């Protein structure tokens, strides 16, 4: 039996090593649904254009239905000898329906076929990822809503800076994941374009109706240049770039979760099922999930580097190099999906079907956060602003407050614990009402500009997100 689609020309068989080296079936078989979908759309068009007969079209449909159930049942015999998903399915089709199967590839090449398959598959995965990004945003929004009034020390340079609402802090991530979702939607528009009809590289001599195939497949258009259609993978690179950014956002959040749950912060707890113990230290509960997410970010960014490097030296048009697009792309999708799923649950908890309430999300130790915020003179800027309102130029106020902070540090107290008389020593216009502005809550409430951390602003942000995500 003929082992390869082109074997007549060849005087010797491939060695086993070369077969294993060049074959992709054991990873690209996951494209099978896209491959069948693309083939069916192509066959339907071939029949409509009178390139194949209606009977052949019917046989192809029947054969593909059979192959679908074989694959779904796990009974399909994937053969390394047949190199990839495309040749495996086509060979089986021909086995099942004879010549009609051999006619399927009319006006088509594996070059436009594989580009189509990857696009169709990726389109579906982008839709899943977009849904998961909505879920994660919802989890963050729900958690933020419960913690608008909880005060967290906001950091710059990891030094206590100004108090912020914990809800506000979480909503910062919602903004990031919102942009990630927008990027996914944007990438999808360029993924969802049809290469089929480009054939090997130059187009084909048959009167194909490419637009018809695009419509059947729900694609937004056809690739306008056959050489470009079969050879570029910029859509995959773009997707991986968007995925990398999303993982970077997850990674920054992970870093914060890890810090916050260390004993020295003690700000939060995450559910035990996202942590592991130590084989030697009985007291340990380690934040393995956020740590792994931070680690897996490196892996996805690595895939981006891999894909972009894969492309850089390739002359037009198709080159076998492009077979190497699949494993990084598949792994990027798998890693991102798992990470998003796990974070939605870790942040927002899991729905208890008995009560209809989500349980086991992030647990917050509001006292520890507040105590930490009280440690770092987080309201010093508020005192400077207070003096500005009394007429001092900001730079002078800044200097005056620096003296006050220095004195408070040497006393080992917070600014709000200095007696009024001491404060007045720094500036005579300081009055009793200063203590309101030196309090964490006063500081928070005062930051009432659009996008600021005042609870009123955070509520407005929340409402905007809730409406958008509903
Ligand atoms: N398995 C190949 C890939 O992933 C399919 C296209 C191969 N085309 C070719 N002429 N060798 O890119």
TrEMBL record:
It is an enzyme of class 4 (lyase). Keywords: Amino-acid biosynthesis, Arginine biosynthesis, Cytoplasm, Lyase. It catalyses: 2-(N(omega)-L-arginino)succinate = fumarate + L-arginine. The keyword DNA damage does not apply. Residues 10-302 form the Fumarate lyase N-terminal domain. GO terms for cellular component: cytosol. Its EC number is 4.3.2.1. It is found in: Cytoplasm. SUPFAM superfamilies: L-aspartase-like. Residues 377-445 form the Argininosuccinate lyase C-terminal domain. InterPro entries: Arg_succ_lyase_C (IPR029419), Argininosuccinate_lyase (IPR009049), Fumarase/histidase_N (IPR024083), Fumarate_lyase_CS (IPR020557), Fumarate_lyase_fam (IPR000362), Fumarate_lyase_N (IPR022761), L-Aspartase-like (IPR008948). GO terms for molecular function: argininosuccinate lyase activity. Transmembrane segments: none annotated. GO terms for biological process: L-arginine biosynthetic process via ornithine. Pathway: Amino-acid biosynthesis; L-arginine biosynthesis; L-arginine from L-ornithine and carbamoyl phosphate: step 3/3. Pfam families: ASL_C2, Lyase_1. NCBIfam families: argH (TIGR00838). Belongs to the lyase 1 family. Argininosuccinate lyase subfamily. This is Argininosuccinate lyase. It comes from Comamonas antarctica.
């Amino acid at each position: 039996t003929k082992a390869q689609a082109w074997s007549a020309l060849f005087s010797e068989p491939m060695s086993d090593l070369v077969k294993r080296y060049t074959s992709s079936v054991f990873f690209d078989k996951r494209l099978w649904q896209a491959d069948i979908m693309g083939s069916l759309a192509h066959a339907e068009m071939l029949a409509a254009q009178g390139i194949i007969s209606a009977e052949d079209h019917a046989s192809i449909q029947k054969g593909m239905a059979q192959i679908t159930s074989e694959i779904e049942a796990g009974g399909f015999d994937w053969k390394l000898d047949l190199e990839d998903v495309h040749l495996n399915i086509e060979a089986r089709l021909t086995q099942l329906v004879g010549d009609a199967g051999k006619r399927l590839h009319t006006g088509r090449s594996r070059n436009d076929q594989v580009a189509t398959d990857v696009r169709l598959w990726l389109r579906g995965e982008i839709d899943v990822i977009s849904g998961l990004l909505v879920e994660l945003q919802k989890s963050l929004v729900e958690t933020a809503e419960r913690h608008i009034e909880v005060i967290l020390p906001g950091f710059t340079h990891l030094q206590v800076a100004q108090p912020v609402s914990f809800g506000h802090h979480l909503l910062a991530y919602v903004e990031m994941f919102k942009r990630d979702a927008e990027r996914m939607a944007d990438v999808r528009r360029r993924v969802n374009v049809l290469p089929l009809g480009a054939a090997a590289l130059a187009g084909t001599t048959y009167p194909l109706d490419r637009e018809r195939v695009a419509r059947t497949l729900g694609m937004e258009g056809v690739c306008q240049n056959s050489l470009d259609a079969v050879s570029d993978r910029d859509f995959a690179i773009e997707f991986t770039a968007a995925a990398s950014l999303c993982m970077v956002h997850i990674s920054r959040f992970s870093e914060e979760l890890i810090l916050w749950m260390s004993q020295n912060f003690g700000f939060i707890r995450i559910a035990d099922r996202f942590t592991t113990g130590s084989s030697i230290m009985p007291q340990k509960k380690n934040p393995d999930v956020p740590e792994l997410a931070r680690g897996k970010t490196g892996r996805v960014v690595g895939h981006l580097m891999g894909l972009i490097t894969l492309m850089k030296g390739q002359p037009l048009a198709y080159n076998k190099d492009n077979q190497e697009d699949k494993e990084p792309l598949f792994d990027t999708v798998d890693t991102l999906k798992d990470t998003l799923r796990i974070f939605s649950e870790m942040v927002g908890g899991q729905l208890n079907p008995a009560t209809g309430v989500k349980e086991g999300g992030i647990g917050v130790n509001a006292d520890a956060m507040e105590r930490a915020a009280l440690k770092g003179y987080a309201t010093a800027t508020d005192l400077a602003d207070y003096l500005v309102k009394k007429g001092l130029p900001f730079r002078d106020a800044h200097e005056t407050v620096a003296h006050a902070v220095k004195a408070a540090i040497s006393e080992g107290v917070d600014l709000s614990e200095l007696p009024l008389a001491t404060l007045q020593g720094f500036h005579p216009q300081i009055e009793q009402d200063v203590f309101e502005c030196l309090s964490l809550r006063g500081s928070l409430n005062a930051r009432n500009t659009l996008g600021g951390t005042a609870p009123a602003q955070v509520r407005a942000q929340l409402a905007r997100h809730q409406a958008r995500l509903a």
